[in-house]
Structure formats: structure tokens, C-alpha cells
Write a structure and sequence with these properties.
This protein has helices spanning 25-128, 133-144. With 160 residues, the chain is mostly helical.
Length: 160
């Protein structure tokens, strides 16, 4: 039987790794230059314009979005200012209405107080001096024009 000596060595001795052999350097440099020029042309004519277009579209889109955001911010500020103005106007109207209502109520209360004081004064005159009360009550009512002009009670309880 024959002995099989299989090996991975190249026939003719120890050659080493082909890219590191000095005989292959000139051909490798030529192919490197050809590949570099081919990739440079391919990148500069096809890939880089596409990338530049994408970047310019993106920057334009961002600029448009920022402009729209500024417009919306200005609109929002204007709406907020209008809201604040309307709110302040409503507050001042409410305060003026409240002040006017308070003044009307105070005037009505003053009139009611005077009328009630006049009525009480007339009744007090009638009770204290029933024989003179009628005339004094009339004069009092004419001055104040607010009491009821009822005749004093002459049931005889005041005279003896």
C-alpha cells in the first residue's frame, strides 16, 4: 500500500501567502488603483448626489417645520393675549355692574329706611299725643312723603 501524504503545501517549496510576496506587489497596486478610481467615480456620480439630495430635503423640511412652529407660536401668543384682554374686560365689566348694583341697593335701602323712620315717627306721635297726633302726623307725612296717612286710633283709650 502506498502511503498518502496529503498536505497543504504548494509543490516546489515554501512560498508563503501570495499577497505578501514581493513579485505580486505591482499587479496588486494596479488593481488597487483601478478599484479606487472605479469606486470614487461610482460614489461621486451616483451615491453622493443622492445623499446630498436627501440631506438638502431634510434640512428644507426641518426649516419648514421650524417656520410653521414659529407661526403657530405667534398665533398662540396672539390668542392668549386676546383671551387675557377679554378676561380683563369681563372682570372690569363685572366689577362695574357689581358697583352699580351695590349703589342702587344702597340707595333703595336708604329710601326704605327713611320711609320706615317716617312711619315710625308718625306712629310715635300718634301714640304719645293722640289728641294732637293727626295734625302733626299730616305735617310730618307732608315733609317726608313716605308714611301712610292713616288716621290715629281714636278709640278712647288715650282720653280720660
Amino acid at each position: 500500500m502506498a502511503a498518502t501524504n496529503a498536505s497543504t503545501e504548494a509543490p516546489g517549496g515554501h512560498g508563503g501567502f501570495p499577497p505578501f510576496q514581493s513579485e505580486n506587489f505591482p499587479s496588486q497596486l494596479v488593481w488597487l488603483a483601478v478599484t479606487f478610481v472605479l469606486l470614487y467615480v461610482l460614489m461621486s456620480r451616483i451615491a453622493l448626489p443622492r445623499i446630498a439630495g436627501i440631506l438638502s430635503d431634510r434640512s428644507k423640511h426641518i426649516a419648514d417645520d421650524l417656520a410653521a412652529a414659529n407661526r403657530f407660536k405667534e398665533q398662540s401668543d396672539a390668542a392668549h393675549a386676546a383671551y387675557e384682554k377679554a378676561l380683563n374686560d369681563a372682570r372690569s365689566r363685572a366689577q362695574s355692574i357689581a358697583a352699580a348694583t351695590h349703589a342702587e341697593q344702597a340707595a333703595a335701602a336708604e329710601v326704605t329706611n327713611k320711609r320706615l323712620e317716617a312711619q315710625l315717627g308718625c306712629r310715635a306721635i300718634n301714640r304719645s299725643h293722640p289728641h294732637r297726633g293727626d295734625e302733626q302726623c299730616r305735617r310730618h307725612c307732608q315733609r317726608h312723603r313716605s308714611c301712610d296717612r292713616r288716621a290715629p286710633d281714636r278709640s278712647g283709650s288715650g282720653r280720660a
